[in-house]
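Weekly sync notes, structure subgroup
Attendees: PM, AL, DS (notes)

Item 1: joint prediction request from the bench team. They want all two components modeled as one assembly rather than separately. Inputs as received:
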Amino acid sequence: DVKVTQSSRYLVKRTGEKVFLECVQDMDHENMFWYRQDPGLGLRLIYFSYDVKMKEKGDIPEGYSVSREKKERFSLILESASTNQTSMYLCASRGFSSYEQYFGPGTRLTVT
Amino acid sequence: DQQVKQNSPSLSVQEGRISILNCDYTNSMFDYFLWYKKYPAEGPTFLISISSIKDKNEDGRFTVFLNKSAKHLSLHIVPSQPGDSAVYFCAASEGPIQGAQKLVFGQGTRLTINP
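Output from the run, pasted for the record:
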């Protein structure tokens, strides 16, 4: 079974703080993704990575950065958290020749 | 611009009846489509998929239909069960599968199955 884990289920941060969200997958997948989920907007892609040290912007990269130093780990960084970044953050991974993405349980981030 | 649209935010169905969830897309380059199911406080889980070369795919109680000319797909659940109550997302694949391929998701439809 593919397992994607995220470092926190719930997180509360203050405006202006630097926030790190960590994601680890155990299936040796090449591709990893960060999404945010907001009511009425579905899942929107923030960044993705198709190889170690490679990254691509998704649809809403502003205010975020990512890091992928090891194949199994993909980090999302909010350089200076703002209240409009309050959301559910979902990490996913997929194998090289598969369309299916496997998701982690999500991190609900609240920025006050 | 929303390339994948689920126009019904919610749907309520009686237990045992058929649930039909709809999804429309605008990009004719999409070549693979997936449905995901999401319970509260959990990540989405893969349900069923269909390639653009097919018009139907079945897996137990779940069937996905694809109408390429109308750029429309639908998910049928028969018979509906209380455990099917969840948010359903449709997704379309963009990009080369062995490269920077990504999924474009719809807004989701909340399905409620009433006993």
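Discussion: Chain A touches chain B through 29 residues (CB under 8 Å).
Action: AL to compare against the crosslinking data before next sync.
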